Amino acid sequence: MAVDLLLGLQWGDEGKGKIVDVLTSNYNIIARFQGGPNAGHTLVFNGKKHVLHTIPSGIFHEDTTNLVGNGVVIDPVIFKSELDKLEDQNVDYRKSLVISRKAHIILPTHRLLDAASEASKGKAKIGSTLKGIGPTYMDKTGRNGIRVGDLELSDWKERYRALANKHESMISFYNVDIEYNLKELETEFFKAIEVLKSLQFIDSEEYIYQAQKSDKTILAEGAQGSLLDIDFGTYPFVTSSNTTAAGACTGLGVSPNKIGEVFGIFKAYTTRVGSGPFPTELFDKDGEDMARIGNEFGATTGRPRRCGWLDLVALRYACQVNGVTQLMMMKGDVLSGFKTLKVCTAYKYKGDIIQHFPYNIEPENVEPIYTEVEGWAEDLTNMSDASEMPKALNDYIDFLEKELEIPITIVSVGPDRKQTIFRNK
Ligand code: IMP
User: Fold this and answer.
1) Kind of pairing between the strands at 408-412 and 420-422
2) Is 41 a catalytic residue?
3) Which candidate in 21, 160, 386, 403 could, as Cys together with 43 as Cys, close a disulfide (CB 3.0–4.6 Å)?
4) Which residues contribute to the annotated binding site for IMP?
5) pLDDT digits over 385-417, tens only?
6) Same domain, 313 and 351
7) Domain identity same for 312 and 403
8) Domain ranges, residue 16
9) Ligand 1 centroid from CA 378, angstroms
């Protein structure tokens, strides 16, 4: 069976966790392929909210295997706290959670390096979640990293010490004021490592290959969003992994000709957390209303998210880079009550009108060109069937489908599993 992909098409926080949870009953395996605890995937069911950072969003379904792929970076301390929360809810993860031996480990000193690097950048800082993501991927590509499989080797602690010592000299090189107590951090880290070691480590590419051969259904769960991709995002204000479709191939060991559906998730408007250009960002009451009604605060850091109108130039670009086959529109309910909605359909770029996503999207280069569409007044949050949707919402969706040339098959009208409207392709 082909592997289906589920990806965020904007700057993250599109609601991937909810949709993975909704779709999980169709799949035998849910696999994370990149990112790490910088992600915060929120699931709501039975009146309770659950936030996952590294663990795939299929974990609450008993018969689903949840795989942490080789492309993921794992912080054992955060991983352990996620496991503790699952235990509190009597989720039996021991059989259903498997981890690639090739996934890299975030050390306490990676987190400190992240903080030192950001502090040294001053105003030019990325706005990182400071989870050690960048430094860990740097060690991966620099061929210095420690992988999950290394924990099975007798000398892994010596390797750890050598790398941590190197990191300490690098931290002092940054010459910024970072206070830390490495001994304390290490006590917590080594305790968490023991918990990690009690889980099932696997050769995940072989596992996935065999699963595909025996017709198991697999959904690869993306983290962050396409505009944060290390290659195709708004560099340098991006994360350090490939968040786009190709990342699923390298992050799981799946060949490109074995990819099936590519589900692209987007919000009915746009948000961004952290620094970096955002052409349709709003600084007025509309932006404040989106933030308030949409409860736009980071699930990992609690930081307020910047809000703006839907940007079809950016969305079209994300659909192209990922080969999206179906779209899923999130948070349509947040726009209820806006009289008029604006959608950016082109950019004015250095005097020309363009429809592609250019190299520079900073405000001095790009001015969004908007099309206005009628809003809807109805509360959508109790709707569960496409026939209940107001005409203006249907018109908005028709407009987006025409512009993007891809069907919108799910409209999400609230955080709960139940607040999901399926539309025919
Ligand atoms: P890092 O990956 O934590 O270093 O953060 C790099 C940039 O990506 C920052 O602007 C973060 O705010 C952003 N970012 C990282 N992970 C997420 C996410 O899961 N959702 C939204 N933004 C994210």
Assistant:
1) antiparallel
2) yes
3) 21
4) 13-16, 38-41, 129, 143, 224, 239, 303
5) 999 999 999 999 999 999 999 999 999 999 999
6) yes
7) yes
8) 3-101+200-262
9) 33
Residue bearing the CA closest to ligand 1, atom 11: 128
pLDDT for res 369: 98
State the distance from the centre of ligand 1 to the C-alpha of 110, rounded, in angstroms: 16
Mutate to test the pocket of ligand 1, among 104, 128, 270 (most ligand atoms within 8 A of CB): 128
400 and 313 co-located in one domain: yes
Catalytic residue from among 21, 41, 80, 416: 41
pTM score, two decimals? 0.96
CA dist., res. 77 & res. 74, Å (int): 9
Domain count, the chain: 3
- Boundary (domain end) residue, out of 262, 280, 302: 262
75 lies in the same domain as 11 = yes
Q: SS in 3 state form for 207-235?
A: HHHHHHHCCCCEEEECCCCHHHCCCCCCC
The neighbouring-strand residues paired with 420 are 412
> Is 84 found in the same domain as 60?
yes
Q: From the CB of 322, is ligand 1 less than 6 Å away? A: no
- 305 C-alpha to center of ligand 1: Å? 11
Percent of the chain residues past pLDDT 90, beyond the cut: 96
Q: Summarize the chain as % helix, strand, coil (round to 5).
A: 35, 25, 40
234 CA distance to ligand 1 middle (Å): 12
Query: What is the domain-level CATH number for residue 337?
Result: 3.90.170.10
Distance 274 CA to ligand 1 centre (A): 7
Which residues sit in the known binding site? 12-18, 38-42, 129, 143, 224, 239, 299-305, 331-333, 412-414
What digits encode the pLDDT tens for the residues 71-122?
A: 999 999 999 999 999 999 999 999 999 999 999 999 999 999 999 999 999 9
Q: Give yes or no: residues 73 and 204 share one domain.
A: yes
Ligand 1 binding pocket includes 277 (Cβ within 6 Å): no
By the 10 Å C-beta count (0-12 exposed, 13-18 middle, 19+ buried), 195 is classed as: middle
User: Which region, left, alpha or beta, applies to residue 302 given φ > 0 means left and ψ of -120 to 50 means alpha?
Assistant: left
**Residue 21: active-site member:** no
Closest CA to 207 of 29, 348, 361, 355: 29
Query: Are residues 234 and 276 in contact, defined by beta-carbon separation less than 8 angstroms?
Result: yes
